[in-house]
Every structure is written in C-alpha cells, then in structure tokens.
Design goal:
4 domains; phosphoprotein; about 40% helix; alpha+beta; six-stranded mixed β-sheet; Beta-Lactamase; about 25% strand
Length: about 500
C-alpha cells in the first residue's frame, strides 16, 4: 500500500474522495457519538480538511479545526498511522497519543490519502445501552470500510444530499446478511408502527415486512426490495395512503468483499411530502396566474391598438401606441414567468424580443434596424418587469429622437462587469442611436418627457441603479446620437 498527499499527481482525485467522505461521514459521527476530524498530509505536517460533530452526543471539540494544523500531541499519532497504514485505537497500541482519540487511515485505490481522528467525550462515559452498543459497532464497521477504501461508495453522494434524506437520529435498523432485523432503534420502531407493523420486528425479514404493508394498486419502486435487503446503497420512498417513509441502506462489507450486514436509516417524510405537494400546487397556480395576467394584458394592448387607429390626432395616436408598448412589455414578462418558477430568469430571449418589438412599434413602418451585442444571462426574477420597461422606454426614445424620417439603427449592448471598489457585480445596459443631422442638443432637455421620467423612476427605485445619457457625434455629416447607459447592481 502506498502513501500519498493532495500534493501528488493524483491530488484532484484524492480531494474529490475527501469531499465525498465529508458529504457522508455525519452518519459515522452520529453512530460513534464522537467528533471526527479529517487530516491530510501537507509538506511535513497535516492540515484539517473537515470536521464533523455528532448530533447524538455533546461535542468534544468546540473549536472548529478546519484549515488548522494538529496540536503537538496529535502529530505523532497521525504520522504513525500513515507510516504503518493501520488504525490506532483510543489508548491502545500507541499510548503516546492523546487520551480518548483513535485514528483511522483513509485509503483510496491502495493509497493512504488522509487520516480520520475520532475524539471521544471522556467526561460523559457511562455504561452503554443496547442502542449505544449497536451504534458504536456500526460506526466501527464504517471506519473499517473507510480504511479498506469501500465506504462511502462512489455513487452515494447524490443520495446523501437529497431532500428529506434520513439521518441516524430519525431511525436506524441493522440487518444481517440475510436481511433479518437484528436491531431497530426506538424511532425506527415508531416508523414501523406508523406503517402498520404492530408486532416485534427483531428476527423478521425487513424487505418482506415492509412490502406486506403497502397498499394494493400503488406502484412500487422496483429497487425497494434490493435496498431493504441491504444489498445496494441507495434511497427509496416507502409510500402508503397514510404515511411516507424514506429508507436509505448502507451495505456493510468486510475486507474480502463479503456482505455481512447492512444499516437502514428510516425517516418519516409524510409532512415533507405534503409540503412538497402544496408547493407544486402553488407553483402551478402562480404560473396559471401569470398566464392569465398575460392574456388580459394582451387584450388591453389590442384594445389600445384598435383605439389608436380611430384617432385623428397624431399626438393622441402616438400616446396610445406608447401605452400599448408598455402594456405589451409587461405582458411579455408575465409570459416568461408563466413558463418557469425558478428564482432566476434567462433574460436574453425576453429582453431581446422586447427591444425589437419596441423598436418596431415606435418606427411606425420606417426602416429602423437593430443590433444586439452581449448577453443578460440569468438574472433575479424580480428584475424582469422593471428591466423590460426600461429597455422598452429606451428603445422607444432612441427611435423617436435618434432616427430620421427614412430610418436608422438602434444598438443594444449588455455587459456584466465588476466595478472597482464594489464587491458585487453589475449589469451595464447601453442603448445607442445614430442621431440625426442638425439635431438640437437634447442633453439639457433630458428628463422632461414622460418616457424619461419612467426610466429614471424604474432605474433608481426598482432596480437601485443609475442612468446616464451622453451625446456623441457619429459621422462627418454632423449626426449627433445619444448613448443611454444604465448600471444595475446584482446584490438585491
């Protein structure tokens, strides 16, 4: 067996293995009633990669050791375990070590890549109950599997981080190699009672006992018998009309690869499932509300469009068209929100469509082209409506004041940037028109129009950003265009 450290050529694979252990070893901490520290070799010493405290007992190490070097009386023990590639029990075989501390090598593909120290609370030592005996034996079995490079299994990380995953304190069942229950914790027994099992469970086959309680007509996960038999490391949900239990199995395997027992963690997730179903129902309701609001706003937009066609006054018709454009912008946001309930929304399709639509409406048949550069990416959903309205107003203003009677071009540019002295990123949105020849310098009049006032209010109040206008000459003929620059912080 070789020894290795994260500084070797296999460091990335070894660090991934350590991360996998960190994602699973809370089970070992709870079963052992001990604090665990994961140490890896760094130059001539060790560094603490992670630390776990037991939920089932008082912590022994109130100070978090993650990222620190070991105390002087622990360093020789760690070096001894790495050099001999064998575990050292608390107070056994290596009396120089700190009292109440055992150490286990972490082996992966024949490499000793780290050491786990197990810190017992010597103050609270007392006569062990049956539960404590089973828990400590199970923890010992897991540490042996870590030393043999067997546990955690490579495919176990997904199950350990999933929603509603059972924990040791929720209920533990230990079964033998034949799937027979050798011990069930009080919480596990309570879970069986909710499932409908009234008699004693010791000595009964767990898989058959559970499947006999399932309701007729309810589909059964095909992996359930295998998981409940302890042959496969996975999680399944045991569902009846009254209760839902989450079961997760951890096969116990010896150094020769023989399966000799298994741990099955049980958790009553009935309330979690009920809340999930409520959230799904609420999400569907919210999406339907967005869809209906979008339909109603489109109806309002159509009415405004019909009314504008009957107007004889150009000013009145233009005002109705602008109102229609604003309504359509909000309708487009609700259409996008009706298709997702994520906290963030991909703004590119939404705002690019809005920009082109606003330009087309304001152009009133003139040949006005658009150019879009950059990407908004995913932004918080609450920014969608004000940002869409800002893009709409900027595009409308650019067409009205920055294009000629024959047409022109309007540019939309988007950047994500980190401003000096600011910890949070910004989105910079620019709308640029090419201007018209001999146009009056409108810098002094910016802010007097309704559209500009809407922009200022939305940017400063809703988006908590800033808006600046700049006049610039575009060609030798004297065309003076306007560049509107909006900066939006992404910290809210």
């Amino acid at each position: 067996m070789r020894t290795s450290s994260p500084g070797s050529s296999h460091s990335q694979a070894h660090l991934q293995r350590l991360e996998l252990i960190s994602s699973e070893w809370q089970i070992a901490a709870d079963l052992s009633f001990c604090d665990l520290v994961l140490w890896y070799a760094e130059d001539d010493t060790f560094l603490a990669h992670d630390q776990a405290r037991p939920v089932t007992a008082q912590t022994t190490l109130p100070q978090d050791l993650t990222g620190t070097r070991p105390p002087e009386n622990l360093q020789p023990l760690l070096a001894h375990v790495v050099a001999n590639q064998q575990p050292v029990g608390a107070g056994e075989d290596y009396p120089v070590g700190p009292p109440g501390v055992s150490a286990w090598p972490v082996v992966w593909k024949n490499d000793t890549i780290a050491v786990i120290t197990v810190h017992q609370n010597l103050v609270s030592q007392r006569h062990a109950s049956r539960l404590e005996e089973v828990y400590r034996q199970s923890a010992y079995d897991l540490f042996v599997m870590i030393a043999n490079g067997i546990w955690p299994a490579e495919n176990s990380k997904a199950s350990s981080t999933s929603h509603g995953n059972p924990r040791v304190g929720d209920g533990l069942v230990r079964i033998d190699a034949h799937g027979l229950v050798s011990y069930a914790s009080p919480n596990a027994t309570s879970a069986f009672r909710k499932l409908g099992v009234r008699e004693a469970v010791d000595g009964r086959q767990l898989s058959r006992m559970v499947t006999n309680q399932l309701d007729q007509g309810i589909p059964i996960d095909e992996s359930m018998p295998t998981v409940l038999f302890g042959r496969y490391s996975a999680r399944v949900d045991i569902e009846t009309r009254k209760v839902v239990l989450s079961a997760r199995s951890i096969p116990l395997i010896d150094g020769s690869g023989e399966h000799f027992a298994a741990l099955v963690l049980l958790r009553d997730i009935t309330e979690i499932r009920r809340r999930d179903e409520q959230l799904i129902s609420k999400d569907a309701t919210i999406r339907e509300i967005h869809h209906r609001v979008k339909n109603n706003l489109q109806t309002v937009g159509s009415l405004l469009r019909m009314q504008s066609r009957r107007m004889t006054s150009d000013g009145a018709r233009q005002a109705l068209l602008q109102a229609m454009s604003r309504v359509d912008a909000i309708a487009l946001v609700h259409e996008t929100l009706s298709q997702t309930m994520d906290a963030t929304v991909d703004m590119d399709d939404l705002l690019n469509r809005q920009f082109r639509m606003a330009v087309d409406i304001a152009a009133e048949g003139r040949a006005v082209t658009t150019t879009i550069d950059g990407s908004f990416g995913a932004l918080p959903g609450h920014l969608a409506t004000p940002l869409a309205l800002v893009v709409n107003e900027l595009a409308t203003n650019a067409v009205e004041h920055g294009t000629s009677a024959t047409g022109g071009n309007v540019d939309l540019s988007v950047k994500r940037l980190q401003r000096p002295g600011h910890s949070h990123p910004y989105v910079q949105v620019e709308v640029v028109d090419e201007g018209v020849v001999d146009a009056p310098d409108a810098i002094t009049t910016i802010g007097s129009g309704l559209g500009t006032q809407i922009i200022r209010t939305l940017v400063e109040s809703d988006l908590r950003g800033t808006i600046r206008w700049h006049r610039q000459r575009f060609d030798q003929h004297g065309a003076v265009g306007t560049r509107a620059v909006v900066l939006i912080p992404l910290d809210h």
